[in-house]
Amino acid sequence: MTLADRLRTALDAEHETAPVLLAGDERDPGPEANGVPTPAAVLVAVTDRAEPGLILTQRTDTLRRHAGQIAFPGGRIDPQDDGAIAAALREAEEEIGLARDAVQLVGTADRYRTVTGFEVQPVLGVIPPDLALRPQPEEVAAIFEAPLAYLLDPANHVEASVEWQGRERHYYEIMWQDFRIWGATAAMLVNLSRRLRLSDWGSA
User: Fold this and answer.
1) How much is the pTM?
2) pLDDT for 183-202, tens place per residue?
3) Which of 83, 90, 119, 125 reaches 20 to 30 Å from 103, CA-CA?
């Protein structure tokens, strides 16, 4: 069975107990129209290795939102996009130079609503290893690959809290090497871990 097939089977599997998923950040009104969140999509690109990895980016320090943070390639769904999958593929091509035809689509994972008013649709796909990816310098400071099994291991999901805008905000963070993955990106990884249940089909 190919990696894409294994991921697709795990994504679509029905379990005796439904996974407890994170729906979104506790938030005040954000940049959305009439209380409706702005639709967005990200590409969760898994490398097709014996030990699969996951492609992540570090955003530049000059961006207005989430400067310097770790993120999946992605962004808002534009009117010309044919849905979330098309948006995720377009954004990945623009941000990291990942050709759309290099992505073997697996499916869509659980949506997540961010503190900044976006409802993000993760799109899961498999890509060949060691592609020559190129960061878009205005948005992406670095591209790196982290082990999928490590990122999805619940033992590495640390719950933390911070005082933010007068209230206590709870979030998850995942430390890998010198990278601190937290906020919406970590939450989507937690959800993906709970949905896929990698331990049910062997080490990735």
Assistant:
1) 0.90
2) 999 999 999 999 998 655 44
3) 119
State the SS3 of 124-161.
Answer: EEEECCCCCCCCCCCCEEEEEEEEHHHHHCHHHCEEEE
Report d(CA 129, CA 120) in Å as an integer. 26
Q: Which amino acid is at 111?
A: R
Q: Determine contact, residues 186/157, Cβ cutoff 8 Å.
A: yes
Domain that holds residue 76: 3-149
- 200 lies in a domain? no
**pLDDT at residue 143 is higher than 90:** yes
For position 59, which CATH number holds? 3.90.79.10
Q: Domain total for the chain?
A: 1
Alpha-carbon Rg for the chain, nearest whole angstrom, is 16
Q: Give the HSE-up count for residue 149: Cα atoms under 13 Å, Cβ half-sphere.
A: 11
C-alpha 14/C-alpha 152 separation (Å) is 19
Residue pLDDT, tens place only, 29-54: 455 555 688 999 999 999 999 999 99
CA distance 141 to 170: 27
